[in-house]
């Protein structure tokens, strides 16, 4: 009965929550940092030495590039890098933290970890590596490549790998990146030992038995930063209702920070600072294109150091972007080794597609570069992504996770000529599936601008369709796509801007959610690259009274976009689809030493009682939604505006 009263209270307070947000906004305050040039490899924020509290100590076992990734129900990956292998028997320790408790008396759980490393040939897959649009500093210094390629400094003249390299043209032929075909890489000679990058040791621990919303401290072997901490993502509505019935505190909402196409420029640093200001975020959703290493492997390490200030305390979920996996897989090994996905816990055979429940949402992620419909061109293979996605959507129980959020890199809807209809085959193959399952929000990147799409289906505004949001504006070195917006703006496009920022999605309850995007910085053309293209630098009044060069969108001067999403299963029956078993048991409780594999594939089945409870909740939700809808209809408000922003139904 307590659970039923809780749900009634949530529904009854839905409109009240929206009214409050009209006045106070929905994002944590943050101070936009001043503009600076793009980050150089020598920047202290990218230095291993700068990560240690003991600058004079031995850093070989010092953890760096620490980040957290949800690994399934009640589980978390902790990933970090070290320069040497850790001692046998080393463990990650963690415990639930309670304010005021005696840290010396707490009982620490222990988790073992697996370690691996890889070797990669140094290549360049993008001209931006040596002539970035977000200049003037280059991510890769040509003089370093020349020094690495010049084997004449150590090889014997009669050796097959003897080569005299004097300047950049000997490494990158003139016009290599300035002429078609555009998708190509150039690698240093395979038989040059200096052309091989050795990764650090990548360690992955698997924490289990985590309680939703609980605060945890964790210690990594060899760490000079004691008691790192994080909040475990909130439980689903079922567990929250059971907690309420037991008199426990219930997390009222679920908050996602959202970013994409980050790279590692000064703008990226500003965007990460923006995200760090979202103190109430539960999980960061990254829409792909992380490091922009583009074949130069050390850039995976520098990205990890830059992101650590956010990702060692904010659990993050990722999907692969083209810069993470393409150029014939130059980046795939680094991406998959460093950023494991929760695919095993979601019944997926591939790390390229996965799902996980976070509070009120069932979150699905998949690679835009995994074929969505077979047969394959070469061997006739089917597309396993599609089959898995169909099964996963059927498992969703809207009474347990009322919202469905899907994340992939390449947008299906985008009114910028950049990447327009690039994913049309995937849209044709999968859009009907997402529509019929009542997916609420799709998050994408790839287009280096921000755009919010109205609820849409098959290029027509449709109140029962999916709301698509493009956030490929995380600060990467390729610059903004603001000069090629389609004119007129399509009816399905609500807001678009060619600058940089990040978003925040808050699911208040089973029916209402709010979205906000804030510009973090603008950029202005400051010169030309080696390819005679404009390069940009951050500028403007800390992202407020400014617009990026060549941004021709009608919203070019708007620093903030807000919207409210309303789930109405009566008006849109597809929003009520989903009475499956829902999330499977996490086997929560006291975590044991080394329990579970790093992929988190140990799961327990739902009991008959859990299924019965889920069905009961589904019936209750539909009935209450009907009553709620009738009250809304009395006000005759099918659409309304908050702060001059669209409200999507």
Q: What is the first-to-last residue Cα distance?
A: 30 Å
- Per DSSP E runs of 2 or more residues, the count of β-strands stands at 29
CATH class of the largest domain: Alpha Beta
CATH names the topology of the largest domain as Purple Acid Phosphatase, chain A, domain 2
Radius of gyration: 25 Å
Low-confidence stretches: 1-38, 51-55, 585-649
> What's the story with the biggest beta sheet?
8 strands, mixed
Can you describe what's shown?
With 649 residues, this protein is α+β, with helices and mostly antiparallel strands. The protein folds into 2 domains: 2-40 and 201-576, 4-Layer Sandwich (Purple Acid Phosphatase, chain A, domain 2); 119-197, no CATH class. The chain has 11 helices and 29 strands. Strands 13, 14, 15, 25, 26, 27, 28 and 29 form an 8-stranded mixed sheet that branches. A 7-stranded mixed sheet has the order 16-17-18-19-23-20-24, with helices on one face. A hairpin with a 5-residue loop joins strand 26 (512-528) and strand 27. Helix 7 crosses helix 8. The longest helix has 27 residues, at 608-634. The chain is globular, with a radius of gyration of 25 Å. The chain starts with a helix and ends with a strand.
Structure in a nutshell:
This protein has 649 residues and is an alpha+beta fold. It has helices spanning 2-12, 14-24, 142-149, 237-245, 266-276, 298-311, 322-329, 332-338, 384-395, 424-436, 608-634, and strands at 64-72, 75-82, 92-96, 109-111, 113-116, 119-121, 123-124, 186-187, 196-198, 201-207, 215-219, 228-231, 254-259, 283-286, 316-318, 353-358, 361-366, 403-407, 441-444, 450-453, 456-457, 460-461, 467-471, 493-497, 500-507, 512-528, 534-539, 560-566, 647-648. The protein has two domains: 2-40 and 201-576, Metallo-dependent phosphatases (Purple Acid Phosphatase, chain A, domain 2), CATH 3.60.21.10; 119-197, no CATH class.
């Amino acid at each position: 009965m307590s659970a039923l009263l809780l749900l009634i209270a949530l529904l009854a307070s839905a409109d009240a929550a929206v009214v409050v947000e009209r006045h106070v906004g929905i994002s944590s305050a943050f101070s936009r940092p001043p503009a600076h040039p793009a980050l150089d490899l020598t920047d202290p924020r990218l230095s291993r030495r700068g990560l240690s509290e003991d600058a004079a100590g031995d850093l070989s076992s010092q953890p760096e590039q620490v980040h957290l990734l949800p690994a399934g129900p009640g589980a978390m990956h902790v990933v970090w890098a070290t320069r040497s292998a850790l001692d046998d028997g080393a463990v990650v320790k963690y415990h639930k933290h309670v304010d005021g408790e005696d840290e010396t008396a707490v009982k620490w759980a222990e988790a073992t970890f697996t370690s691996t490393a890889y070797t990669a040939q140094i290549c360049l897959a993008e001209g931006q590596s040596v002539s970035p649009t977000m200049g003037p500093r280059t991510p890769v210094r040509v003089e370093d490549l020349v020094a690495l390629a010049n084997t004449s400094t150590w090889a014997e003249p009669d050796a097959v790998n003897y080569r005299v390299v004097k300047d950049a043209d000997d490494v990158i032929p003139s016009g290599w990146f300035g002429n078609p075909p555009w998708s190509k890489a150039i690698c240093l000679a395979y038989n040059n030992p200096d052309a091989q990058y050795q990764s650090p040791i990548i360690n992955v621990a698997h924490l289990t038995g985590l309680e939703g919303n609980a605060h945890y401290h964790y210690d990594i072997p060899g760490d000079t930063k004691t008691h790192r901490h994080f909040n475990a993502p909130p439980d689903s509505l079922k567990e929250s209702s059971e907690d309420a019935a037991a008199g426990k505190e219930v997390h009222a909402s679920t908050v996602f920070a959202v970013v994409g196409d980050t790279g590692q420029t000064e703008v990226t640093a500003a965007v990460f600072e923006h995200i760090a200001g979202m103190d109430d975020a539960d999980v960061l959703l990254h829409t792909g294109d992380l490091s922009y290493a583009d074949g130069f492997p050390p850039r995976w390490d520098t990205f990890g150091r830059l992101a650590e200030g956010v990702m060692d305390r904010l659990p993050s979920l990722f999907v692969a972007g083209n810069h993470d996996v393409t150029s014939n897989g130059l980046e795939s090994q680094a991406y998959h080794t460093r950023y494991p996905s929760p695919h095993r816990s979601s019944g997926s055979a591939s790390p390229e597609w996965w799902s996980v429940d976070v509070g009120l949402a069932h979150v699905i992620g998949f690679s835009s570069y995994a074929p969505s419909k077979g047969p394959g061109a070469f061997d006739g293979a089917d597309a396993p992504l599609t089959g898995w996605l169909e099964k996963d959507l059927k498992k969703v129980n809207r009474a347990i996770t009322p919202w469905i959020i899907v994340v992939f890199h390449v947008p299906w809807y985008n009114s910028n000529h950049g990447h327009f209809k690039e994913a049309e085959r995937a849209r044709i193959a999968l859009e009907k599936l997402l529509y019929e399952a009542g997916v609420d929000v799709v998050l994408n990147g790839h287009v280096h601008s921000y755009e919010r799409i109205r609820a849409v289906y098959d290029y027509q505004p449709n109140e029962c369709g999916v709301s698509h949001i493009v956030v490929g504006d995380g600060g990467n070195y390729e610059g903004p796509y603001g000069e090629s917006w389609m004119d007129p703006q399509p009816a399905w496009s609500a807001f678009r801007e060619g600058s940089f920022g990040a978003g925040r999605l808050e699911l208040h309850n089973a029916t209402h959610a709010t979205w906000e995007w804030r510009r973090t910085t603008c950029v202005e053309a400051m010169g030309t690259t080696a390819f005679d293209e404009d390069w940009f630098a951050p500028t403007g009044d800390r992202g407020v009274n400014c617009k990026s060069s060549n941004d021709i969108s009608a919203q070019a001067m708007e620093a903030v976009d807000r919207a409210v999403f309303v789930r109405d299963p009566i008006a849109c029956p597809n929003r009520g689809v989903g009475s499956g078993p829902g999330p499977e048991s996490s086997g929560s409780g006291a975590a044991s030493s080394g329990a579970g594999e790093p992929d988190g594939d140990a799961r327990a089945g739902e009991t008959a009682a859990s299924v019965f409870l889920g069905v009961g909740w589904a019936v209750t939700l539909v009935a209450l939604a009907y009553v709620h809808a009738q009250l809304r209809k009395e006000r005759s408000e099918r659409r309304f505006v908050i702060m001059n922003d669209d409200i999507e139904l």
